[in-house]
Specification:
Elements lengths: L1 H8 L2 H16 L5 H18 L7 H25 L12 H4 L4 E9 L2 E6 L2 E6 L8 E8 L2 E6 L1
Parallel strand pairs: 3-5
Antiparallel strand pairs: 1-2, 1-4, 2-3, 4-5
């Protein structure tokens, strides 16, 4: 069946497979199918050149496709891994870490190492030395949803 489809469509079967894989990348993005689709398109281009030669059987085409798909996927992974984009807001989704260095007033006293402060519009659980309510504290660290504070 595969051999019949390949022989009836000729070298265009690889182009169709490549375009289907590229469309699948658009439907389910993950930057993986694009490399396999590119390998299929390259095999299609090679098939246009070598279709009438005796050595370009479907087995060779599949082998070239497999090698190119692996090579393109590894090259793409290396390309995207080397691109380290710096952000103008590096702590955007790490709100607790963005509060380190800020000062606030204790709304609830720290007893047995736990208390609460209000920063901006949020109440935060804090850990630190026992301090009375109304004391100015400085946020020195963040771990998950808890902030570590010390007297300012």
């Amino acid at each position: 069946m595969l051999q019949d489809a390949t022989s009836s469509l000729g070298p265009w079967s690889w182009w169709i497979l490549g375009l289907v894989l590229l469309a699948a990348e658009l439907a389910a993005p993950g930057v993986f199918l694009i490399w396999i689709g590119a390998a299929a398109i390259v095999v299609g281009a090679l098939s246009l050149m070598f279709w009438d030669t005796g050595f370009w059987s479907w087995q060779i085409q599949f082998l070239v496709f497999a090698v190119l798909a692996i090579a393109f996927a590894l090259a793409g992974r290396r390309f995207y891994a080397s691109r380290k984009e710096t952000s103008d807001e590096p702590l955007l989704n790490r709100r607790g870490e963005s509060l380190v260095g800020r000062t606030a007033t204790l709304n609830e006293p720290i007893t047995e190492g736990r208390g609460r402060i209000r920063l901006d519009d949020t109440w935060w659980s804090v850990m630190g030395p026992d301090l009375p309510a109304g004391t100015r504290v400085k946020v020195v660290a963040s771990s998950g949803r808890d902030l570590s504070v010390e007297a300012a």
